[in-house]
Amino acid sequence: MICIRKMSFVTVCAVVLTVSVIGQTGSFQAKMSDGTATSRMPTPTLSVSAGTHKLVDGWVTKSRQAVNAGQYLKAEQMARQALTLLPDAGEIHAFGAEQALGEALLRQGKNQEALNTFTDLAKHNPQPYVLCRVGLLLARLGRIEESRTLWNTKFETTWFGEDQQQDQFLPATDNQALLEGSWLLQTEDQERTDDAIALYYAQKAVQLIPKNPILQLVLGDKYLESKKYAQAVAALKIAAKRGVGVCKSKATGDLRMAEWLLNYPEYERGHPPINTKVN
């Protein structure tokens, strides 16, 4: 921003701003008439009007809401509607429309289409949540080596420490179910800010490997956060019974909390009461 508080009207009129797009970064640089450059700052591609931006954002939001409601075909249609409003790939990636489309396709089991979508998105936006879906879809399509290679080069697991049963589900194996379950857990980990999406991936992971205590612990905690206390108790009981070390101790503590909230639903915060029973 250029400060004009102490500049005369004539001086202000003499200021010329030249905006130039820098490469593909979406940043711009403003220059004074004397060639002095101001600081750079990010900006979206300027080829789409503000009105179109608003329409695209609206369709993307509706698509995500439909995904959370389990209306995956509707979500796909809304994401495609957003894409029709955008003239080029840069705009598509800027507004997340392609991400919304990929998520809707993934939920419907249209794995190849979803993989194509997320692979293209990863070229421009190689964020963890995008790469998680690429790895998951590679596993689902039986491309085990590619999926495991992506995991080993892009992700490092730190859930419960090196000694906590990770060998049961991490993708150092050719077992497709274990590899897919690993990606589901990693995807849940990347979606912690969206409870509905994180819960979905935790549920899918447990469906795939129901006896794994770490997956049950993650699912139980997601149910606990969603105030679904009966489901949380069921999952945490399995985790507490089958888990070891940190997994077992955390599941036991979370189970106690879930049981307390199930029995005393009027309390949303606090800790289980101390046993005050008089013998």
Helix fraction by DSSP (H/I, runs of at least 4):
55-70%
**Given the helix and strand composition, which structural class is it?**
mainly alpha
Termini Cα gap: 73 Å
Residue stretches low in confidence (pLDDT < 50, at least 5 long) are 1-46, 274-279
Please tell me what the overall shape is: globular
User: What's the Cα radius of gyration?
Assistant: 25 Å
Counted by DSSP, the helix tally is: 13
Strand and helix order:
HEEEHHHHHHHHHHHH
What's the count of strands?
3
- CATH homology-level superfamily of the largest domain: Tetratricopeptide repeat domain
| Strand neighbour order, sheet with most strands | 1-2-3
- Sketch the major β-sheet: 3 strands, antiparallel
Summarize the structure.
It contains 13 helices and three strands; from the N terminus they run H-E-E-E-H-H-H-H-H-H-H-H-H-H-H-H. By secondary structure, the chain is mainly α.
Word description of this protein:
There is one protein chain. It is built from 13 helices and three strands. It is mainly alpha-helical and 279 residues long. It folds into three domains: 9-42, no CATH class; 49-125, Serine Threonine Protein Phosphatase 5, Tetratricopeptide repeat, CATH 1.25.40; 145-273, Serine Threonine Protein Phosphatase 5, Tetratricopeptide repeat, CATH 1.25.40.10. It has a three-stranded antiparallel beta sheet with strand order 1-2-3, with no helix packed on it. The N and C termini lie far apart (73 Å). Residues 1-46 and 274-279 have low confidence and may be disordered.
